[in-house]
Amino acid sequence: MHSIAPGKIILCGEHAVVYASPALVMAVNRHAHCRIQSNDDNIHLSLKDLDVHFSVQVKDLAKVTSHIRQRFDSFLKNKVPIRNVLQNPQDLYLLALDTFHQHHGLKSGLDLEIYSDLMIGSGMGSSAATLASLYHALYTTFDLSVELDDIYALTLETEHFQHGNPSGIDPYIATFGGFIRFEDRKPVDLDILPPKFHLIYTGSPSSTTGECVMAVKKFSNSDIWQSFTDTTNLFEHAIKSRQYRLLIKAVKDNHRLLDEIGVVPARINKFISNIEHKGGAAKISGAGCIKGPHAGLVIAFMDTDPQELCHEFGYQFITITGEPHGVRTACRNCTG
Predict the structure, then answer these.
(1) 197-320 maps to which CATH number?
(2) How many other CB atoms are there within 10 angstroms of residue 305's CB atom?
(3) pLDDT tens per residue across span 153-207
(4) pLDDT digits (tens, 9 = 90+) for 271-325
(5) Which regions of the chain carry the CATH code 3.30.70.890?
(6) How many Cα atoms occupy the beta-carbon half-sphere of 248 within 13 Å?
(7) CA-CA-CA-CA dihedral for 15, 19, 24, 26, to nearest 10
(8) Which DSSP state fits 265?
(9) The domain 2-188+323-329 is classified under which CATH number: 3.30.230.10, 3.40.50.2300, 3.30.470.10, 3.90.1150.30?
């Protein structure tokens, strides 16, 4: 059994969504993969991207995960930070297997291989996509009725161990795909996909998402969040009406606002200025960075190929399109 789930990109509204403004989020044509085969009474877990291999007997699964759950309880009591809950790369997926076992029972051992063509730690929702693909593969392997609402609920439940209090955006997109407006923790499907764009990786940020969120708190009582809302509405209107020039304006406006709240490094600003000089527009996607030259992902809408400019700055890029479908069984030709 081979299941896949899409990653995601925040097109507009990062940071602002914390202050009750909307965000626009899109599933992308890059996926997490889970391959499962039944075996004896053992679980053999392979995290292909990390070269991690772990084995445990089904009967010992609860014992192995009990320590993780205890650490999460300590987090809920404000005794440890969320980053201390998961201490090994396999912890999240062992929790998922144990959660599924509690709900439905594991009727045999399993050989699992998990891998992804998403950039891990870059804001593409890799953990949620991986969990959704794992749960889908488990339901299908054991001939259980696959209900997407159930997969979403289990994925969101397990994501708490990774992120503490997740918004639900990543599990929703991984499960259902498409393009959504996310506001007040509620998704609204927009039934359209934006035009293709370039996704540029500028390097791992030196500051964490949490540090960026804390730094932006000084704007908590500012009217800038209404400007973010206006820009998101313009962004959505431009996509729905297929007005490319208006989309370019919305991306530029969003970039200016993100720069104003201090999450766009100077080097990224210079890079984006070059794109604008070529007639395009670009902005960070995600938390950005408050120290150092890197800011994770930048999305760029432009008619020309950014290869030369990316080479000049030492960045990597891929061209992205929207993914209308969520978690599902992979096609036979999907090799990953």
Answers:
(1) 3.30.70.890
(2) 11
(3) 999 999 888 878 777 888 999 999 999 999 887 899 998 888 899 999 998 888 7
(4) 999 999 999 999 998 888 888 898 889 999 998 889 999 999 999 999 999 999 9
(5) 197-320
(6) 14
(7) 60
(8) -
(9) 3.30.230.10
